[in-house]
C-alpha cells in the first residue's frame, strides 16, 4: 500500500473538487451546517466517484446521511453503555457516600473516598476508548460497504467486513488509519488556529471543513479499494 500516493491523491482530490468550483464549495459549506447532507455527500465519495461529484439529488443525500448517522449511533452504543455503567456507578456511589455522611462538604474533607470512584470512572473511559478503536476498524469498512451496496445492513456485515480487511491486510489497514489520524490531526490543529482568530475565525473554519471532509472520505475510499475492490463496486 503506497501511503504517500494515497495521501497525495486524497489531498489533490479535495483541492480539485473545490478550488475553481466555488458554487460546489458554497453548497458543501451549507451542507456541513445541515450535516446529514454532508454525510450523504461523503457516501457519494465512498462510492468511488471521481472526480469529486456535484452535490445533487439533495433528498437522496439527506436520506443517505441519516442512514449513516443511525449506523454510527448503533456502533457507538457499546461505548456509550460502558461509559454509562462506569460513570453511573461512580456517580451514585459518590451520592450515596455523601448522603450517608450528612456532611455537605464530605468530599472536600474526604478526598480519599472520592479518588477510588474517580479511578473506577477513568478505567471505564479507558475500556470505552479501546472498544471504540476496535469498533472503528469495523465501522470504517462497514460504512463504505453500506454506501456501495446501498444496503443499510452491510454496515454490520461483519463477515464481509473481515474479509475486506484480510484482503487489505490487518497491518496495512491499521497503519493506514494511523497515518490518516496523524495527518488529519495536524490539519485540524492548523484549522483550529484559524478558529482562534476573533470574529472571523469560525468563518474560516467553516470554509475549510468541506476540504477536510472530502480529503478524509477520499483517503478511506483508497484504503477500501486496496482490498481489490474496483471503484464503485462493493
Kindly describe this structure:
- It is a single chain.
- The protein contains nine helices and no strands.
- 25% of the residues are buried.
- It is globular, with a radius of gyration of 22 Å.
- It has a domain at 3-74 and 141-225.
- The chain is an all-alpha fold.
- It has helices at 3-18, 22-33, 35-46, 58-101, 106-109, 111-149, 158-168, 170-195, 201-225.
- α1 (3-18) crosses α9 (201-225), α2 (22-33) packs across α3 (35-46) and α3 (35-46) packs across α4 (58-101).
Helix share bin: over 70%
Taken in chain order, the helices and strands follow as HHHHHHHHH
The largest pleated sheet is described as:
none
Q: In one word, what is the shape?
A: globular
Distance between the termini: 19 Å
| DSSP strand content | under 5%
Q: Roughly what is the average pLDDT, rounded to an integer?
A: 90
How would you summarize this macromolecular structure in one to three sentences?
This protein is mainly α and 234 residues long. The protein contains 9 helices and no strands. The protein has a domain at 3-74 and 141-225.
What topology emerges from the helices and strands here?
Blueprint: H1 3-18, H2 22-33, H3 35-46, H4 58-101, H5 106-109, H6 111-149, H7 158-168, H8 170-195, H9 201-225
Amino acid at each position: 500500500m503506497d501511503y504517500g500516493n494515497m495521501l497525495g491523491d486524497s489531498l489533490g482530490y479535495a483541492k480539485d473538487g473545490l478550488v475553481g468550483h466555488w458554487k460546489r464549495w458554497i453548497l458543501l459549506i451549507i451542507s456541513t451546517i445541515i450535516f446529514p447532507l454532508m454525510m450523504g455527500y461523503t457516501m457519494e465519495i465512498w462510492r468511488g466517484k471521481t472526480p469529486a461529484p456535484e452535490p445533487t439529488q439533495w433528498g437522496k443525500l439527506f436520506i443517505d446521511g441519516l442512514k449513516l448517522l443511525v449506523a454510527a449511533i448503533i456502533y457507538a452504543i457499546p461505548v456509550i453503555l460502558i461509559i454509562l455503567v462506569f460513570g453511573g456507578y461512580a456517580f451514585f456511589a459518590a451520592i450515596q457516600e455523601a448522603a450517608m455522611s450528612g456532611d455537605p462538604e464530605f468530599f472536600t474533607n474526604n478526598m480519599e473516598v472520592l479518588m477510588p470512584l474517580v479511578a473506577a470512572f477513568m478505567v471505564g473511559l479507558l475500556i470505552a476508548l479501546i472498544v471504540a478503536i476496535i469498533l472503528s476498524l469495523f465501522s470504517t469498512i462497514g460504512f463504505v460497504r453500506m454506501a456501495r451496496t446501498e444496503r443499510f445492513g452491510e454496515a454490520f456485515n461483519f463477515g464481509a467486513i473481515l474479509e475486506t480487511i484480510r484482503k487489505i491486510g490487518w497491518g496495512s489497514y491499521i497503519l493506514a488509519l494511523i497515518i490518516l489520524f496523524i495527518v488529519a490531526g495536524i490539519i485540524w490543529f492548523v484549522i483550529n488556529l484559524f478558529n482562534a482568530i476573533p470574529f472571523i475565525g469560525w468563518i474560516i473554519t467553516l470554509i475549510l471543513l468541506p476540504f477536510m471532509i472530502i480529503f478524509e472520505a477520499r483517503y478511506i475510499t483508497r484504503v477500501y479499494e486496496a482490498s481489490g475492490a474496483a471503484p464503485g463496486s462493493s
